[in-house]
Write a structure and sequence with these properties.
By secondary structure, the chain is mainly alpha-helical. Helices cover 72% and strands 0% of the residues. It is built from 15 helices and no strands. Helix 5 runs antiparallel to helix 6 and helix 12 packs across helix 13. The N and C termini lie far apart (80 Å).
């Protein structure tokens, strides 16, 4: 088998796996926006498998230019996918769509205008610098939010998916830039296709084994009151101590509260506190656990006639939120209404 034929087989296998993965994700996640995001990532990755060309600078055909732009913009989808993967409170907004369109348009213009004008190498370098930038954002998000996940199995799965995707993305971008203008290399394309197939196969196997629904399970946090929980007798003392930190000391009000800080205060290992909050209290994310207590305090303040003139942002920041936007989103996710609407309804009923 020639290198060119092997390259074609590897690409076709990767695309077939991505198609299977897209169907499985659509089945497991149904109409969830996270499912649509995962399917978009799979389709963009398939476009990448069909169009990457290590060392090539020739202007693409009119038919392939949109596929190349779709593959380039897939790095935005990867960034959003990883944000959704690590933050159950993350929600897509219109700005994210505009960012995707900007990257897609930038790549399309490069393919249709700059490439034919003799600036193919510049287009390749610019696209891959952009890709490395979004990979950096993805890595930063991964590091920042990974510790907040309380489900140990899910943390390992997420770490594997992100590391695999980032490793291939970084190597591919560096290969593209290093070889731009040197002419297509059949060997480099085969190696790249083989790496891509391994990553896609490993991620597909991992997700299909555990079920995408387990990775992206929605948050349904319980009421943040100690009497609403029923911990096992062996952990009751720790649950009570944790709730005292929440109710009496209101430790959730402090800046940069971490699970490590709480574990130190309770004199227990961090992993045990993770299991306690997840297994006994039912939370999958540490930030959701903190926000539940913050929102309970905010609800009480908003319903208090004596605080009717206190600005909403003051109540939010007193409860431990750092800004109004995250508070409004978290509050509405829990209550179904905005803080202002909640205040108006409660004061009208008083």
């Amino acid at each position: 088998m020639t290198l060119d034929s092997l390259d074609l087989v590897l690409r076709a296998a990767a695309i077939a796996l991505l198609a299977v993965l897209a169907v499985a994700l659509g089945r497991d996640l149904g109409g969830q926006w996270r499912g649509r995001l995962a399917i978009a990532l799979a389709l963009g990755s398939a476009a990448h498998a069909a169009t990457f060309n290590i060392g090539g600078t020739a202007a693409p055909s009119l038919a392939s230019a949109p596929l190349i732009a779709l593959a380039t913009a897939d790095i935005v989808v990867l960034w959003l996918f990883c944000r959704a993967l690590f933050d159950d409170g993350f929600a897509l907004r219109g700005l994210h769509g505009l960012i995707w369109l900007a990257v897609f348009g930038f790549s399309l213009i490069g393919c249709l205008v700059l490439g034919p004008a003799g600036h193919g190498r510049l287009v390749i370098v610019a696209n891959n610098v952009l890709a490395l930038g979004f990979l950096g954002l993805t890595l930063a998000q991964t590091i920042r939010s990974w510790s907040a996940d309380l489900v140990e199995g899910r943390r390992r799965i997420r770490a594997f998916v992100v590391i695999a995707a980032l490793s291939y993305g970084g190597i591919n971008a560096l290969l593209q830039m290093a070889s731009a203008g040197s002419g297509p290399s059949e060997l480099a394309n085969v190696v790249n296709a083989a790496m891509f197939l391994v990553v896609v196969g490993a991620v597909a196997l991992m997700l299909l084994r555990v079920g995408a629904g387990d990775v992206f399970a929605p948050e349904t946090p319980p009421v943040a009151e100690p009497e609403a929980t029923a911990p096992r007798a062996a952990d009751r003392r720790l649950v009570d101590a944790l709730m005292r930190l929440m109710a009496d000391e209101r430790i959730y009000r402090r800046d940069n509260v971490t699970i490590g800080m709480l574990a130190t205060r309770l004199s227990i290992p961090e992993y045990r506190l993770r299991r306690l909050i997840n297994g006994e209290l039912g939370y999958r994310n540490f930030n959701t656990f903190l926000n539940a207590h913050r929102i309970e305090e905010a609800k009480a303040a908003l319903a208090d006639p004596a605080q009717a003139e206190v600005p909403v942002i003051t109540i939010a920041m007193d409860a431990g939120f750092q800004s109004l936007g995250p508070f409004n989103r978290a509050f509405k996710a829990v209550t179904g209404v905005t803080p202002t609407e909640y205040r108006r309804m409660r004061l009208a009923a008083a």
